[in-house]
Amino acid sequence: MPTTRSYGDACTIARALDVVGERWALLVVRELLFGPRRFSDIRRGLPGASSNLVADRLRELEAREVIHRRRLPPPAASWVYELTPRGRRLEPVLDALGEWGGELPRPPEPFALSAASVLLYLRGAARPDPAEPPATFRVELRTGGDVAEVWTVRTGDGRVQVEPGEPPRADAGISTDPHGLNDLLAEPSTLDDHDVTGDRAALRRLVRSVQAA
Q1: Beta strands in 172-213 (DSSP E)
Q2: Which of 66, 108, 175, 213 has the smallest number of CB atoms closer than 10 Å to its CB?
């Protein structure tokens, strides 16, 4: 059931935690940082949370105007959740938490790793050479069974941008799963072990830019 628990503390930190401090709440926000997602997408990114618990967090966050729900136009016509402007302001908070958490040990295997999580790490940790020409990558991540999500990753001006969906054109592409991409970012020399199309050298520069960070 949705919770209405409060710290009853006037501190602004406590008041913020009244809204997003419940277990899984900030991870729901994490799953929405790159754009609208269906319930099934969010649920797949949080395998440790039950469907009822995820539904509760969504209802709470919607009631607090952190997210809102809308129906996509035809032909999709499915319901999606997305961050409100207020919810979007949590992005630098999550970026800072991610950087802080990078200093902590990983949980023991097997551990969950969502597509959004590893792509957030890529976006935050990569430092592409500003002198390199812009490049666009098609990243296909298998997230369970036969389900695969496609993401667009762009580099340019020393930055990395990520958004869901197919790029209009791509210099290179890779198909793996979140764990595989995470392992590749940790050890770029394994690129030849992955399913890669297009300009392999451009993709190699991207993954190596994480090591240079």
Answers
A1: 172-176, 195-198
A2: 108
